[in-house]
Amino acid sequence: MGISMNNTRPDLHTGAIGSRRYTHGMRPDTLPRGRFVAEVLARGLGHLAHDAFRGACPPDALDRSGEPALVRRGPDANEVELYLRLHSGALAWIDAGHGQVRIEVAAATRAAAHDAAKRLRESLMIDEPPAERVSVAFWMRGECGGDVRHRDIHAEPFEAIANNYPLAVRSALDALTETSAPDRGRLILWRGEPGTGKSHALRALARAWAPWCSAHFIMDPDELLGRGGAYILDVLTWDAAADEDRWRLLILEDAGELVAADARAATGQALSRLLNVADGLLGQGTRTLILITTNEPVGRLHPAARRAGRCLSDIEFTPFRAEEANAWLAANGRTESVSGPTTLAELFGLVAGAPIAARGTADLGFGFGRALGDRPGRR
Fold it and tell me: How far apart are CA 63 and CA 157, in angstroms?
């Protein structure tokens, strides 16, 4: 069946991409993936290769890889979906935007499909960020599973911020940052009252683990562990082709309700699914670690979450004792002193000129979840 030319969609283009112009017959309701599937079937290409990775889709890379036949631009300038005829004779569908790329490649043989996918990945991959920044995948539930956005955020090494924690907390964090590829325990619990520096430490941990573990910040933990499995499977299998030995760290900030003593009554099966990822079949098969931060005291946490062998690390973030707080202030050039336990946020507030009673944490930028609007050097 022939396809007539009737291009009335403003977001669909058969025109200039890079240095050449491309034309192809299409219907207004035809999308690049639909054309990709149609031609795969028409040619009888029986082998598919899939991949997802951190990357971009610049026009010059497309010109080097093949001939874009149909392109759809998204509302954001960096969002693009296209159907590409590769120079090797294989066909590819590419969905790119916000620092991430998904591809499907079809060819006559399995080897040809995987080879073409590998070459396309190499062409579209983004270089790793410089040492002072770390790449983080920010996840939210999308229409058909997980929707991801990549962002390179500023992250100081732990040794540069170690003095921002009381000695006991500092020692526990130091041991955790030195960990690599743990052989047991997939769940990490960070608990403590607001302002004790949990979110501040998350960036340092992501940087310390970057060589062997990718960081994934879950913006809606309740949705990740809710009904349906598409979202969590997308997160657990993202970039799996990059390195089978690479781990992933799922960060669930302020998600204490998932591991609370009444979690089963309050969140249904979310606790069971969380524990399945931590030490069940899902976690074992995908090398996944889960870090949960919470303001809940230890007595309100479900014992199953803190079971020996399940927890890689269980750290209580405490305020500084008075003598430690005064030593911190002196080291930061302040002459003020405190007489009781003081949180890290309160100490930064004093440095900024705010009284302890004001707590003044709103503008300190501690929240890891605010990293989508991150500014280098900000604490």
Answer: 40
Per-residue pLDDT of the chain (379 residues; tens, 9 = 90+): 232 223 333 444 443 333 333 333 444 335 788 888 999 999 999 899 988 888 888 888 888 888 888 888 777 667 888 889 998 899 999 988 878 888 999 999 999 999 999 999 999 988 877 878 898 999 998 877 888 888 889 999 999 999 999 999 999 999 999 988 777 778 888 988 889 999 889 999 999 999 999 999 999 888 887 766 788 888 888 776 555 678 889 998 887 677 664 555 444 567 677 777 767 666 667 788 889 888 876 655 666 666 666 788 889 999 999 999 999 999 988 888 899 999 999 999 888 876 665 444 433 444 555 555 543 333 3
Helical axes 230-237 vs 270-279, angle rounded to 10°: 20
* Paired residues of 214 in beta bridges: 248
- Specify the pTM: 0.71
In angstroms, the CA 53 to CA 192 distance is 35
Answer yes or no: CATH 3.30.310 is held by domain 12-124.
Answer: yes
Asked if residue 224 lies in contact with residue 207, where contact means CB atoms within 8 angstroms, the answer is no
Residue 181 · residue 301 · CB < 8 Å = no
And the tokens for 97?
A: 């935007």
* Architecture of the 133-316 domain: 3-Layer(aba) Sandwich (3.40)
Copy the structure tokens of residue 60. 């010059």
Kindly report the length of the chain: 379
Instruction: Determine contact, residues 225/236, Cβ cutoff 8 Å.
Output: no
Question: How, if at all, do strands 20-21 and 47-54 pair?
Answer: unpaired
Instruction: Give the count of alpha carbons within 13 A of 108, CB side only.
Output: 3
What does DSSP say about strands 288-294 and 187-191: parallel, antiparallel, or unpaired? parallel
Establish whether domains 12-124 and 133-316 are of one fold.
Answer: no
Q: Are 48 and 113 in contact (CB under 8 A)?
A: yes
Domain coordinates in residue numbering, the chain: 12-124, 133-316
Amino acid at 216: H
- In terms of Cα–Cα distance, which of 372, 329, 378 is closest to 156? 378
Q: Which of 76, 82, 97, 96 is nearest to 24 (CA)?
A: 82
